[in-house]
Design a protein that fits this description.
The complex is a heterodimer of chains A (about 110) and B (about 110). Chain A is mainly β and about 110 residues long. Chain A contains no helices and 11 strands. In chain A, strands 2, 4, 5, 6, 9, 10 and 11 form a 7-stranded mixed sheet that branches. In chain A, strands 1-3-8-7 form a 4-stranded antiparallel sheet, with no helix packed on it. The mean pLDDT of chain A is about 95. Chain B is mainly beta. Chain B has one domain: Sandwich (Immunoglobulin-like), CATH 2.60.40. In chain B, strands 2, 4, 5, 9, 10 and 11 form a 6-stranded mixed sheet that branches. In chain B, a hairpin with a 4-residue loop joins strand 7 and strand 8. Chain B is globular and about 40 Å long. Classes of the chains: A mainly beta (about 110), B mainly beta (about 110).
Chain lengths: ~110, ~110
């Protein structure tokens, strides 16, 4: 298993600003994933972050809007750039272990005014 | 082909009853089928998972039934308790070490006393 710490747990931001979300894992992992979850909805994958390479983005998500860093095997950040109210959501990081098992952080609840 | 269809969207069960959530998939390459449990304000937590070499897996009060020919799998919660009230997501992924997981749309379960 893996223990994931995600910061901040929640934030209220102004339109046009950016927020960086941090994800720390208690062990070295190869793959990390970033998801978005609208309240009451399912999880939508934003991108996959493999240490040492550029993140791979899903359709509808672009690097300019959601830049991701993965500087080492225990840490990743997701930035939500130039925010609008439509970006209000829950952002979740997860780690992928062998066998496609994923463990999730508690999420960051973002409100954009 | 990557979809996982989940039903029902919501479910109300009496305490002590059986909760049943169903999922169907299209991609025959999927070979890992986890269920996640999510409480309000928390990230999804891996509950139980199955691979297609078995038709059933039981862990405590939770059982996954798997029908490979019908491309369907279900979660049964026996003796449902109010503490089981949460949102449940089925998921599926193809073989390989660190593949993307496709999530179902979620089922909000409420267990009433």
């Amino acid at each position: 298993s893996a223990v994931i710490s995600q910061k901040p747990s929640r934030d209220i931001c102004q339109r046009g600003t950016s927020l960086t979300i941090q994800c720390q894992v208690d062990s070295q992992v190869t793959m990390m994933f970033w998801y978005r979850q609208q309240p009451g909805q399912s999880l939508t994958l934003i991108a996959t972050a493999n240490q040492g390479s550029e993140a791979t983005y899903e359709s509808g998500f672009v690097i300019d809007k959601f830049p991701i860093s993965r500087p080492n095997l225990t840490f990743s950040t997701l930035t939500v750039s130039n925010m609008s109210p439509e970006d209000s959501s829950i952002y979740l990081c997860s780690v992928g272990l062998v066998g496609n098992i994923q463990y999730f952080g508690a999420g960051t609840r973002l409100s954009v005014l | 082909q990557q979809q996982v269809k989940q039903s029902p969207q919501s479910l109300i069960v009496q305490k002590g009853g059986i909760s049943i959530i169903n999922c169907a998939y299209e991609n025959t390459a999927f070979d890992y089928f986890p269920w996640y449990q999510q409480f309000p304000g928390k990230g999804p937590a891996l509950l139980i998972a199955i691979r297609p070499d078995v038709s059933e897996k039981k862990e405590g009060r939770f059982t996954i039934s798997f029908n490979k020919s019908a491309k369907q799998f279900s979660l049964h919660i026996m003796d449902s308790q109010p503490g089981d009230s949460a949102t449940y997501f089925c998921a599926a992924s193809p073989p390989g070490g660190y593949q993307k997981v496709t999530f179902g749309t979620g089922t909000k379960l409420q267990v009433i006393p």
